[in-house]
Design a protein that fits this description.
single chain, alpha/beta, five-stranded parallel β-sheet, five-stranded mixed β-sheet, 14 strands
Length: 259
């Protein structure tokens, strides 16, 4: 019997390394692909858009917060991979009746690295996970001496919501050189208080798809701020994509600093 502990300190017991895996988290789906688990992954969510070939060929089992239990049962998984924030607790409890569920809980880069190594052990891809985490640590170590900007990160509209403290996005904002003006936890509504004016406004491509047409609204609200559209996956995905985050940050920061 194999035993593993997830990031909720729950012990997962498996008779053998998993051969039929369902992933309910887009960033962790991409990680499973980069670990070389093409044959083992049998189900993903409708939001697991990367890698593209998995999105078009793997069975989709609903969304992270609206799973299709019948589809999951039919796939006969021996492991389900979920996340504390992205999946509903009540659904996870139901999923435990189908197969063991390994849950990640991530707010920091360090916890992301722990998750990648943990899934590497869980799937017998230890060396692959070490290679990924070594690349992440090396690339992030090169991010230094960035000019600091007071910042807001908008991720939803109607109502307008921003990333607050105790979020992985907040952690990435710090590495980006942003000083978050939202001091509340999680994802509070932002009512544009007159006493808080950011130097930089980041408009995310997900979960709400902010686009160029939304820029004038924010420019009216904050005439002196720099308004920047960013790819949300580089701020909120905590899997193997983290290897590419520093390069993306440096590219965007160069454009910001020069304008």
């Amino acid at each position: 019997m194999l035993e593993f502990k997830d990031q909720m300190n729950t012990v997962i017991r498996l008779e053998k390394y998993p051969s039929r895996i369902i992933s309910l988290v887009p960033s962790q789906t991409e990680l499973l692909y980069d670990l070389g688990l093409d044959e083992e992954v049998v189900g993903i969510t409708k939001f697991c858009i990367f890698p593209e070939n998995w999105f078009t060929t793997k069975t989709r089992v609903g969304g992270p917060k609206s799973v299709d239990f019948e589809k999951i049962k039919a796939l006969q998984p021996d492991l389900i991979i979920a996340n504390k924030e992205e999946n509903l607790k009540e659904e996870i409890e139901q999923l435990r009746q189908i197969a063991p569920v390994w849950i990640s809980n991530i707010e920091t880069l360090e916890q992301s690295i722990e998750m990648i190594l943990g899934i590497g052990k869980l799937t017998n891809k230890i060396q692959e996970s070490i290679q990924i985490t070594n690349a992440i640590k090396l690339n992030f170590s090169k991010l230094e001496n960035l000019k600091k900007y007071s910042c807001l990160y908008f991720m939803w509209k109607d109502p307008y919501m921003v990333a607050g403290k105790d979020t992985f996005i907040n952690e990435m904002m710090n590495y980006f050189g942003g000083i978050n003006l939202q001091k509340k936890n999680r994802y509070p509504i932002w009512d544009f208080p007159s006493d808080k004016t950011p130097e930089l406004v980041l408009l995310s491509s997900e979960p709400y798809p902010f686009a160029e047409k939304h820029v004038p609204f924010f420019k009216e609200k904050y005439p002196t701020a720099k308004i920047v559209l960013v790819e949300g996956e580089y701020f909120c995905w905590y899997g193997s994509r983290l290897r590419d985050v520093p390069n993306y940050f440096e590219k965007i920061r160069k454009e910001i600093d020069e304008n």
